[in-house]
Amino acid sequence: xxxxxxxxxxxxxxxxxxxxxxxxxxxxxxxxxxxxxxxxxxxxxxxxxxxxxxxxxxxxxxxxxxxxxxxxxxxxxxxxxxxxxxxxxxxxxxxxxxxxxxxxxxxxxxxxxxxxxxxxxxxxxxxxxxxxxxxxxxxxxxxxxxxxxxxxxxxxxxxxxxxxxxxxxxxxxxxxxxxxxxxxxxxxxxxxxxxxxxxxxxxxxxxxxxxxxxxxxxxxxxxxxxxxxxxxxxxxxxxxxxxxxxxxxxxxxxxxxxxxxxxxxxxxxxxxxxxxxxxxxxxxxxxxxxxxxxxxxxxxxxxxxxxxxxxxxxxxxxxx
Length: 320
Prior knowledge:
The structure is a single chain. This protein is mainly α. The protein has helices spanning about 5-20, 25-40, 45-60, 65-80, 85-100, 105-115, 120-135, 140-150, 160-170, 175-185, 190-210, 210-230, 230-245, 260-270, 275-280, 285-300. It contains 16 helices and no strands. The longest helix has 20 residues, at about 5-20. The protein is globular.
């Protein structure tokens, strides 16, 4: 085979990896990645880095944030000094995706804003991730701006991603209409991870509105989807949300805690900081602090040290 044929084959393999990952065809992507690794001696630098990104994508979904940072660090070390905006944007996106999976929206938003402002093609695929991270840390303005910018770019946005991003940034009753429209898109072609995330977002939205039965249904579906894909971080997040809506019909206990307040109080009593609790539950540290303030008001205690004196039996610890 002539050298230029080697290059074409490696480039095609990299493109096929990226397409499979974007469409949630993870088994197919894994096969293509193994082929690329086996033929790595034939690949140029750009194609080798594309394979690094493909591996990072799978690792981000499966929850191995440390390995994602290590591999994308190699990509950024090449892409930034060489001015390769596409490679850099994909690396930052995958860092943001990994951070979201571990429940760290602040780090996710930092990576996403750092990498995607100058590359509309990648933003079109990451727009729902930007919306989720921004809304979680109280920056709805950033989410709305990202969605508007993505809509203006020439590549177009996958409909179900656009709908989820719009739902996350919308006010009622538009938000629910948009969530349901995003879920209906699953009937056109299955995208297991993307659709599980839509159910997770909708279930979390329902839970915040005390629509417990509906929230449990959506969150349980999301949990099954994440678990089937081996998306461990997302499975833990869904577990946490299910625990938060798992109380009785009143949604309260003897202290008048909501399920979420009881859960956070239990973690704080174990000595976790607001930021650590937020990482585990997919909340910002400010939101955790707000819930703890309600706990203090309902019990009359004045400090975290006194939480240990509360009866928090039944508070379920999350797997970490």
